Amino acid sequence: MEQPSYQLDIDETLGFTHDTLRDIVSYWDAKRGNRAMPARADMDPLEMGQHLGWIILTDVLGTPPRFRYRLVGTEITHRIGRDSTGAFLDELYPADRYETITTPFRWVARHGRPLRAVGRLWFAQRDWLSFETAELPLARDGSNIDMILTRAVIQ
Q1: If residue 54 lies in a helix (H) or strand (E), which one and from where to where?
Q2: How far, in Å, CA of 69 to CA of 155, rounded?
Q3: Under 8 Å CB-to-CB from 116, ≥6 apart: which residues?
Q4: Which residues pair with 137 in a beta bridge?
Q5: Tens place of pLDDT per residue across the chain (155 aa)
Q6: What residues contact 88, with CB distance under 8 A and at least 6 apart?
Q7: With contact defined as beta carbons under 8 Å apart, do 79 and 129 qualify?
Q8: How many other C-beta atoms are found inside a 10 Å radius of the C-beta of residue 15?
Q9: What DSSP designation does 143 have?
Q10: 25-61 burial by CB neighbour count: b if 16+ within 10 A, else e?
Q11: 3 three-class SS
Q12: Global pTM?
């Protein structure tokens, strides 16, 4: 049986169709202040209420970057049918899918700016789900990206 194709497009203009994604970008922007980006420690879960179940935190490790899911929100886990918290993406996804799946992470790690991603999920063989995400860089020191915060909408 042939695996479904994975569709992913990135949008540097941040042309979000979901208000919740514009909201999380505004929150990120307020938290960064005059720095290029905020740190993970700046993000307060109590202030992020409606977003919490829809958040993915991805560690950015080394050069070239390697990615590990630090946290996958409960709503995302429920929708895709698995919890990938703690998994390295290069161990989780087949090589022929890895490059596409990590495109937004590599872009954010390279450019240090928010990014919109949109497409159809292949994860866990559930290709009927569409998604839109805000990909937001985080840096402990305000400039060297060590984590990416993703706010997802999955339908």
Answers
A1: none
A2: 21
A3: 10, 11, 12, 13, 14, 15, 16, 21, 132, 133, 134, 135
A4: 148
A5: 345 456 789 999 999 999 999 999 999 999 999 999 999 999 999 999 999 999 999 999 999 999 999 999 999 998 888 899 999 999 998 887 888 889 999 999 999 999 999 998 765 555 567 899 999 999 999 889 999 999 999 98
A6: 66, 67, 68
A7: yes
A8: 9
A9: S
A10: bebbeebbeeeebbbeebbeeeebeebeebbbbbbbe
A11: coil
A12: 0.92
Residue count (the chain): 155
Locate 87 and state its tokens. 């998994």
Q: Which phi and psi (to 5°) does residue 17 adopt? A: -100, -15
Q: Which residue has the tokens 């919490």?
A: 52
Structure tokens at 15: 């042309």
